[in-house]
Amino acid sequence: MSLVGKKAPVINTPAVINGEEIVENFSLDQYLGKKDVIFFFYPKDFTFVCPTEIIAFQEKLAEFEKRGVAVVGASCDTEETHLAWLSTPQEKGGIEGVNYPLVADSSKTVANNFGVLAGDWNYNEEGDLIFEGQPVAYRGTFFIDKEGVVRHETINDLPLGRNIDEMLRIVDAWQHVEKFGEVCPANWEEGKSAMQATKEGVSSYLASNKK
């Protein structure tokens, strides 16, 4: 079920911050009332599509910070594996230079609570508890506002990388809505016209954008 419009699940789990420091009790609550958050899941450390996304977020980090948005990543790896990957140069398959937090969800409870775990536990015919599917997270991305409410989510299957610029567009759209009370139509981007959520507003917008 979608989390949009609902409070984001509470997390309290280890993480690596600043690319080098393990903390035991990382929580998104630290951003409440202060920052919006992009919280994204990726399948696994030391893989192939994942570093391209993680580094792409780092390359756009200043743009998110300019908008008052914290970026936080998460996978079902341990904090020690995160730290090892963060300490490995990019030319050797690592993500050295990434300095936003990476959450360690080795229990898989965070991924499960956010609805992005790529499998589930079940019993086989012999009564043994087994994991069906893959014990990793799908590429889930959640935009959470300052009140802790999820305003946007997307979940990609494992082979499908994200568009980081689209995440910035979502941030811009939500912040425009909050600031001006207008709604953002299809393909809206910062600097384009938005509209009032009325029949007249829609008619006016469509008329002004006829080609």
From TrEMBL:
UniProt keyword terms in alphabetical order: Cytoplasm, Disulfide bond, Oxidoreductase, Peroxidase, Redox-active center
Domain Thioredoxin stretches: 2-176
Classification via InterPro entries: AhpC/TSA, Peroxiredoxin, Peroxiredoxin_AhpC-typ, Peroxiredoxin_C, Thioredoxin-like_sf, Thioredoxin_domain
CC terms in the record's Gene Ontology section: cytosol
CDD domains attached to this UniProt entry: PRX_Typ2cys
Annotated active site: C50 (cysteine sulfenic acid (-soh) intermediate)
Record GO biological process: cell redox homeostasis; cellular response to stress; hydrogen peroxide catabolic process; response to oxidative stress
One Pfam family cited in the UniProt record for this chain: 1-cysPrx_C
Record localization: Cytoplasm
Entry annotated with the keyword Metal-binding: no
Entry keyword annotation includes Cytoplasm: yes
MF (Gene Ontology): thioredoxin peroxidase activity
Function: Thiol-specific peroxidase that catalyzes the reduction of hydrogen peroxide and organic hydroperoxides to water and alcohols, respectively. Plays a role in cell protection against oxidative stress by detoxifying peroxides.
Family of the protein in this entry: Belongs to the peroxiredoxin family. AhpC/Prx1 subfamily.
PANTHER family attached to this UniProt entry: THIOREDOXIN PEROXIDASE, THIOREDOXIN-DEPENDENT PEROXIDE REDUCTASE, MITOCHONDRIAL
Protein's name according to its UniProt entry: Thioredoxin peroxidase
Origin organism lineage: Bacteria, Pseudomonadati, Bacteroidota, Cytophagia, Cytophagales
